[in-house]
Write a structure and sequence with these properties.
By secondary structure, the chain is of the alpha+beta class. The chain has helices at residues 54-58, 124-140, 148-161, 177-184, 187-196, 208-219, 225-228, 275-285, 297-300, 343-349, 436-440, 461-467, 471-486, 502-520, 526-532, 534-541, 544-550, 572-585, 587-606, 612-638, 641-646, and strands at 13-22, 26-33, 68-75, 85-95, 110-119, 201-204, 259-261, 306-307, 310-311, 313-315, 357-359, 370-372, 407-410, 428-433, 447-450, 455-458. Among the domains are: 5-174, 2-Layer Sandwich (Beta-Lactamase), CATH 3.30.450.200; 253-372, no CATH class; 572-646. It has a 5-stranded antiparallel β-sheet with strand order 2-1-5-4-3. Strands 13-14-6-15-16 form a 5-stranded mixed β-sheet. Strands 7-10 form a two-stranded antiparallel sheet.
Length: 647
């Protein structure tokens, strides 16, 4: 499928930008072609409001610790645009004394700059390969005033990418699922499920090229996600200043600019509910979506204020419809982003509200309706017929609408974007960070993926239970690991062969997801659902991406065989797989493994199974084994066919 939308503006590449570090002003744009601000010229430091974080994304935190680095980042669409802008930046630093032409503002021993491409196409690896060569040549000039090479880059890229296809292997250039499996092993499936559940997932490591490479490789396991699933992945509003506090903003606005929902509008819904109770229903049921016509920070400061007619809500309606955006402008967000102060009271009062109620100011033809939906109960799926993902889908409804409606994908997140982690309009994210401040604030995420150690920290114990792999899941993960490991020393494959190669791994995950979707349509077959994890299936059905998928017809899904690809009777091999997984991933398992290693080491050193050190190690190993097997037996009971069917 060829990309044709770039024809209106001349090509898929929007800008070539040079970002430098100034000793007084910090990171700033030094050059852009075509100019980011046409009225100010190509050497202007000014930035569009939507792209105010560009300098900090292109020149990452801690860049001075590396001679060179590569960054993938996403920018929100500008006014008039509808889709994510994909950025690739190549960073380098050079000693100031090596410059042929040293400008007056160069006062430090090294000069740090990044050359970046802003593009409409998610061709990360391809852009990186071209950009690295140009960046090297640009620095070899040792005169940064020579910008003709950057203009040539712009023309060349637009010429070569004008008819670029997003369905070819060039989309995945530089993204290796094979390396991902070798590093994370069985844990890759946990990452896959975390994103399906639309959780707040933070990847952490440095340098940046390892970070963004790992994150985007995980996303490449989702069929069609990189090609067509990230178009709405960066819709956020930058703060007007770094010290802005939304909660303290007070704005005076004309009453005519807002649609008012007050207690009187729903007086007929429940005669038994008190006026205060109705207020709580509205506060907890309204789910506000931030699209390109969403509320600004000032607008949100006015939500929940008192009106002359009572305690109500003020919502600024969209100024225009957006056919490019997924669903309608008033489609609801995931309920978890709402305030939970009155959860118990809301649960009791939801019975009095119909599944969907529509209110408007005046007659229905005079203004846009606002959809009010209750939060779904545990295990209950609330579906709105005919939801539109806004993405280019195949016959199976893929890619899933994961990165839509306030669920962000930020391969690299600068420290200046930290506020997005707690923004009320952001319901979740998959983001990468190198600054330790992100990792320290665990309360802002559901999971932290420490890439270097291949460790996944899931903070909530209930979420850990939901993500706990079933026996069938472990078979699937073990199948991947064995094929990748068996072929790792074949110099002729190098990730390009079929079995154990990159495309083979993506095909396995596509098959897994297809079967998962087909199985989810079999609600009465508890055994089939248990193979994926009944708790996981129930949680997934309440996510935005599943609700969108399920609300539309996908006839091709009928051709997919339902059931887990690795379902079957349990055997001794399954015990071995779970044993290995538990040793590698549970704390008690790690203690057991450590005790065994200590015992083995002492046996080798002493040559005999006697001595105080060995006796202590043996006692430690015995205690760890006893405790660990107790846990293992409980886990086996919980994951037996009978138990998994009852969950």
């Amino acid at each position: 499928m060829e990309y044709h939308e770039e024809e209106e503006n001349g090509g898929p590449v929007l800008h070539i930008v040079v970002v430098g570090f100034h000793h007084k002003k910090g990171c700033q744009v030094e050059y852009s072609y075509p100019p980011l601000m046409p009225e100010e010229g190509h050497d202007s430091h000014s930035l569009p409001e939507e792209w105010k974080y560009l300098p900090f994304l292109a020149l990452p935190d801690g860049a001075h610790n590396y001679q060179e680095d590569t960054v993938f980042f996403h920018l929100p669409p500008r006014t008039g645009e509808q889709k994510t802008v994909y950025g690739v930046s190549c960073y380098r630093q050079i000693e100031a004394k090596a410059l042929k032409v040293r400008q007056a503002d160069v006062t430090r021993e090294t000069v740090q700059k990044s050359v970046c491409v802003l593009c409409r196409l998610p061709l990360y690896g391809l852009l990186q390969a071209k950009l690295q060569l140009i960046t090297h040549a640009y620095f070899e000039e040792k005169d940064f005033s020579q910008i003709s090479i950057l203009k040539e880059l712009y023309e060349h890229m637009n010429s070569s990418l004008r008819n670029a296809a997003l369905d070819g292997s060039q989309v995945y250039l530089g993204l290796s699922p094979r390396d991902l499996i070798l590093h994370f092993r069985h844990k890759v499936l946990i990452l896959f499920k975390l994103i399906l559940l639309e959780k707040k997932v933070l990847f952490y490591t440095s340098p940046v090229y390892k970070l963004v490479g790992t994150l985007m490789t995980v996303l490449s396991l989702f069929p069609g996600m990189i090609e067509h699933g990230l178009a709405d992945a960066s819709r956020y509003r930058p703060r007007k200043s770094t010290s802005e506090d939304v909660s303290l903003q007070e704005v005076t606005a004309s009453a005519d600019d807002y649609v008012t929902i007050s207690v009187s509008d729903i007086s007929n819904q429940s005669s038994q509910s008190s006026e205060e109770g109705k207020d709580v229903q509205l506060e907890q049921s309204l789910e506000i979506l931030e699209t390109d016509t969403a509320l600004s920070h000032h607008d949100r400061g006015d939500i929940g204020t008192h009106t002359s007619s009572g305690f109500g809500q003020h919502l600024k309606p969209p100024s225009r419809s957006s056919p490019e955006s997924s669903e309608s402008d008033w489609e609801t967000l995931d309920p978890s982003i709402l305030d939970n102060n009155h959860q118990k009271e809301e649960t009791e009062q939801k019975k009095d509200i119909e599944p969907t109620e529509t209110f408007s100011k005046g007659s229905p033809s005079e203004s846009l309706p606002i959809t009010v939906q209750p939060q779904p109960k545990a295990g209950q799926t609330v579906l709105v017929p005919g939801l539109v993902s806004g993405l280019k889908e195949d016959q199976l409804g893929l890619p899933l609408a994961v990165f839509t409606k306030g669920y962000l994908c930020l391969p690299y997140m600068a420290l200046q974007q930290h506020h997005l982690l707690s923004e009320v309009s952001i319901r979740g994210f998959v983001a990468g960070a190198t600054n330790i401040l992100f990792r320290q604030q665990k309360h802002l995420s559901d999971s932290i993926v420490e890439v270097e150690e291949a460790r996944i920290q899931v903070h909530d114990s209930e979420l850990r239970k939901v993500l706990n792999p079933t026996t069938a899941d472990l078979r699937f993960a073990d199948h991947l690991v064995k094929h990748v490991t068996d072929n790792r020393d074949d110099v002729f494959l190098d990730g390009t062969g079929w079995e154990g190669g990159d495309e083979w791994i993506r095909a396995q995950f596509a098959h897994y997801l297809h079967s998962l979707l087909a199985t989810s349509l079999q609600p009465d077959n508890e055994k089939l659902l248990a193979d994926y994890g009944t708790a996981f299936i129930n949680a997934w059905k309440n996510t935005h991406n599943y609700r969108v998928w399920h609300s539309n017809k996908h006839p091709a899904i009928a051709e997919i065989t339902h059931g887990h690809p690795f379902m079957g009777q349990y055997s001794v091999a399954d015990v071995k797989i779970r044993f290995t997984h538990s040793v590698q991933n549970s704390e008690r398992g790690k203690k057991f493994g450590s005790a065994v290693m200590t015992t083995s080491r002492n046996v080798v050193q002493t040559g005999k199974a006697v001595g105080q050190s060995f006796g202590g190690a043996l006692t430690s190993a015995k205690s760890a084994v006893s405790s660990w097997f107790s846990t293992l037996s409980q886990g086996a009971m919980q994951n037996s066919p009978a138990q998994e069917g009852k969950q």
